[in-house]
Structure formats: C-alpha cells, structure tokens
Design a protein that fits this description.
Layout (H helix, E strand, L loop, with lengths): L9 E7 L11 E7 L3 H9 L7 E4 L5 E3 L4 E7 L7 E5 L2 E5 L4 H10 L2 E2 L11 H7 L2 E2 L2 E2 L4 E8 L4 E5 L4 E3 L2 E3 L4 E9 L1 E2 L2 H18 L19 H7 L6 E2 L2 E3 L7 E3 L5 H19 L8 E3 L4
Parallel strand pairs: 2-5, 3-5, 4-20
Antiparallel strand pairs: 1-2, 6-7, 7-15, 8-16, 9-10, 11-12, 11-15, 13-14, 17-18, 18-19
Helix pairs in contact: 2-4
Length: about 300
C-alpha cells in the first residue's frame, strides 16, 4: 500500500460496520478508508495492492452487511466526496458522496427541475447511480448526462450514459469501476414550485414509510405490474418477526431492526417473505437491497 504520509484521509482497521449502515447491523471491515476528498481517494486507490477487494459505502442504506464483516477495503464516501456545483445553466456536477436529498434541494434552489424525486431516496448519489435508484416515479439515470468513474488502478475515466445498460433498479457495464461523480441534465423551472413539489413528496413519504426506524429502505423490487408491499401484506406478514427483525406495520416492503437484530435475522426474514409470496402468488420477489460480506 502507498505510504501513509502521502495520504490525507483516515485508514481504520477492523472497523465495525453496524454504525455505518441504516439497518444498524454488520460485522467489521478489515480496512476502511475515509478519503479527505476526491484527489486523495484517487491516490489511495492507485496505491492499493493489485486484486485488493473494494466495497463502497455512502449512507449505508440499501445495504445488508453480514455479521462476519467484509474482507478487503471499504471506501466510506459519507460526508467526503461532497462537491456539488452548477456546470452551466441546466447541468449540475455532483460527487458520489452527496446525499440524494441534498441534490434535490440544491437543484430546486437554483430553479432547476427534474431532480425533485431524489428527495425520497435515502442514500448518496454514488449508490443511486449504482442501482438506478428511484422514488415517486422518477429514476436516477433519467437525469444523468455523463459520469466519472475510477477503476481498481486509480485511473479516472469519463463515461457517457450510452455506455451503460440501465433498467429498473439495475445498471450494467460497471466492470470493476466505481462512480466518483455525475453530471445531471435538468430543466429550468420555478424554484418555489419545485420546493413545494419536494415538500409534498416528503410528506407522502413520511406518511407511508417508517422513516424514523432503522431500515434499509425498500427491501424488494416491485414485480411488473404489481407492488411488493401489496403481495407481502396479502400474505399476512405485516408485523411478522424473526429475532429482532420485523416486517414494518406501516409499509410491508420495509424490514425494521426493532430489537437488536442481526444480519442473520434480517436475511432469514427476507427469505421467509420470498417463500411465502412464491407459495401464495407464484411470484419470485427479487431483492432491491444489496447483500454483502461474510457469515459470522
């Protein structure tokens, strides 16, 4: 690894990941790097040994880290890759560590419309780009113009939207590259109307989702023409618990860590839900949440 004196960030060893994930579960990261900024991160990755496993964490939503933790290096972008600025009259540059809700407000304040839905995504732009996150009928890649990637050798690459295969909650074509930033293409509009739109979306979210509980966001993708929450509720699973993990009584597509759940509890509950829905409806629910790490 590159000599520590050349780096400005913080390198931690055996760092517990539960405090970095919105579900509040997860074993330790063998190593975690907290970069000072994008340039520091590029230097750090360039100095890693060839083949070093890399995992990226932002706000830790949409993520289930197993109790055995993660071998290799975790890059923590939360509060770090945070640059956001206007590129021209209708384009905004956003680094991967910026929370989606901040992007929505920033664009709205500038009188740019099209990014309001990001207010409903409880993660960072890096995570939203990776999975084409969406909310309230909007999807991340619908407003992406181009992206900046970094590969395992620390080489920074500019890529156009056309270089990726984008679908519902899916982005293919990453090939051992990770998102550093994106340029968003928006439209000029009315700032006050945009802010009211965001307010209405957040009120809807707070009414329908357990936003004040430790969850990962939506656990399952909606199957074509249906809703995962409807299917789970129809199976009578609201309030069903395994260990400390329970299906939310407010929204059935959320699993809450209600009583010191482990990743094993949550994963067992996910699989139980999938089995019940398949048995009752013949529909195989696909997870939206990303499961990583090793069993304890």
């Amino acid at each position: 690894m590159m000599a520590a004196l050349t780096l400005r960030g913080t390198l931690l060893s055996n760092e517990p990941l539960a405090k970095y994930t919105s579900w509040r579960v997860g074993g330790p990261a063998q190593r975690m790097y907290l970069p000072e900024d994008k340039a520091d991160l590029v230097d750090f990755i360039a100095g890693l040994p060839e083949g070093e496993p890399l995992v990226w964490i932002g706000l830790g939503s949409n993520l289930l880290v197993r109790d055995g933790g993660i071998r290799g290096t975790v890059i923590n972008t939360r509060g770090r890759l945070k640059d956001m600025r206007l590129v021209d009259s209708e384009r905004v540059y956003v680094e991967a560590g910026v929370p989606c809700a901040h992007v929505a407000r920033f664009c709205s304040d500038l009188g740019l419309t099209g990014a309001e839905f990001l207010a409903g995504i409880p993660g960072t732009m890096g995570g939203a780009l990776k999975m084409n996150a969406g909310a309230f009928g909007g999807e991340t890649w619908s407003i992406v113009d181009q992206v900046e990637m970094i590969n395992a050798r620390g080489v920074v690459i500019q890529r156009g939207k056309h270089e990726f295969e984008v679908a519902y909650r899916s982005v293919k074509g990453l090939d051992n590259e990770w998102f550093l930033s994106a340029q968003l293409q928006l439209q000029k509009g009315n700032s006050e109307a945009s802010q009211q739109h965001i307010k209405a979306l957040l009120e809807k979210r707070n009414t329908s989702q357990p936003t004040n509980k430790p969850t990962c966001g939506s656990v399952f993708k909606n199957p074509p023409g249906d809703f995962a929450a409807r299917l789970i509720e129809a199976c009578g699973l609201k309030g069903y618990a395994i260990g400390g993990a329970v299906v939310s009584e407010k929204h059935a597509n959320f699993i809450e860590n209600r009583d010191n759940a482990t990743a094993v509890d949550i994963e067992a509950l996910i699989e139980h839900i999938q089995t019940r829905v398949l048995d009752q409806f013949g529909i195989a629910l696909q997870t939206e949440v990303c499961r990583i790490g090793e069993a304890a």
